[in-house]
């Protein structure tokens, strides 16, 4: 059912102000336009709401009965519109962000803390998953924004590269490589490496570089998540090749983060949103903050 809000608003204004002239000024329309609005509403209802003479306007019995409900409709709609306008002005509200887990260690929390300071009433729902899952969440509407490893272009996704995240070696002291300022991929030939799931971009980059060096992955353990690999490195199970953003020196006692060179391998981390349709005010504010914040190493 289509509700004629303009007609309801016109009827309430006339009833409260006592005439068409005052009501037209209040609503910033001509008296002719105001009359048409009321006539259209009455035609839709099939009932007369106002008795008009050359001298005065009076409510019919039906009009008097309808007035409290009509007034409530106008007040509720006005309040809802003002709330939306306030949301737009203040960038308030809630939104869902999909993100790869490695970004939740250090990079994303810093941005979220700044966002909370700027917009203390807003709430972020975080969905963590692989880059493939992040893309699907944004495309499927489960998340307004996504943070993932830069991948194959999709016609419905807009991607903004945030930073280049280089792969590094994590090892626990004592280790033969712990005193190095950097290590090459070839230096890893005899290193016990914890494998990362083959479904992650990190594993793809790692396997490619090791294969170029003629090195097979040595290790008796494979995990799904970067955080699990860090736990195992800290426990002395083995070393791991991970994105630099997943770990900072001092996170775990005795664990070293050493740059990998020859070559230096970087994965691009991108901000995703759909090309069609706008963002909510809360998501738009986060989108702008994230693009303006220096990230990476």
Automatic annotation (TrEMBL):
Residue spans crossing the bilayer: none
* PROSITE patterns for this protein: HTH_LYSR (PS50931)
GO terms of molecular function: DNA binding; DNA-binding transcription factor activity
**GO cellular-component terms in the record?**
cytosol
Q: Which keywords appear in this protein's UniProt record, sorted alphabetically?
A: DNA-binding, Transcription, Transcription regulation
| Residues annotated as domain HTH lysR-type | 3-60
- What SUPFAM superfamilies does this protein's entry cite? Periplasmic binding protein-like II (SSF53850), Winged helix' DNA-binding domain (SSF46785)
Check the record and name the InterPro entries matching this protein. HTH-type_LysR_regulators, LysR_HTH_N, LysR_subst-bd, WH-like_DNA-bd_sf, WH_DNA-bd_sf
Pfam assignment, any one: LysR_substrate
The UniProt similarity line reads: Belongs to the LysR transcriptional regulatory family.
Which protein is depicted? Transcriptional regulator, LysR family
Species name = Rubrivivax gelatinosus (strain NBRC 100245 / IL144)
């Amino acid at each position: 059912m289509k509700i004629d809000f303009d007609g309801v608003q016109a009827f309430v204004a006339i009833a409260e102000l006592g005439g068409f002239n005052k009501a037209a000024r209040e609503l910033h329309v001509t008296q002719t336009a105001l009359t048409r609005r009321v006539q259209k509403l009455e035609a839709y209802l099939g009932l007369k709401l106002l008795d008009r003479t050359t001298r005065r306007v009076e409510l019919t019995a039906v009009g008097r009965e309808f007035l409290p409900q009509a007034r409530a409709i106008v007040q509720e709609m006005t309040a809802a519109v003002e709330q939306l306008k306030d949301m737009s002005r203040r960038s308030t509200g809630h939104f869902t962000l999909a993100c790869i887990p490695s970004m939740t260690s250090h990079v994303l929390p810093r941005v979220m803390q700044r966002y909370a300071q700027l917009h203390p009433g807003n709430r972020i729902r975080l969905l963590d998953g692989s880059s493939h899952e992040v893309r699907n969440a944004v495309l499927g509407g489960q998340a307004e924004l996504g943070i993932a490893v830069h991948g194959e272009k999709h016609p419905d996704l807009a991607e903004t590269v945030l930073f280049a995240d280089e792969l590094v070696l994590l090892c626990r002291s004592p280790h033969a490589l712990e005193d190095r300022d950097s290590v090459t991929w070839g230096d890893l030939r005899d290193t016990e490496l914890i494998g990362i799931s083959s479904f992650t971009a990190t594993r793809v980059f790692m396997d490619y570089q090791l294969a170029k060096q003629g090195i097979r992955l040595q290790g008796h353990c494979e995990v799904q998540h970067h955080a699990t690999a860090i736990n195992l490195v800290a426990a002395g199970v083995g070393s791991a090749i991970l994105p630099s953003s997943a770990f900072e020196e001092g996170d775990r006692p005795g664990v070293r983060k050493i740059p990998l060179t020859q070559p230096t391998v970087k994965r691009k981390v991108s901000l995703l949103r759909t090309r069609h349709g706008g963002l909510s005010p809360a998501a738009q504010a986060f989108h702008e903050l994230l693009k303006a914040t220096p990230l990476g190493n």
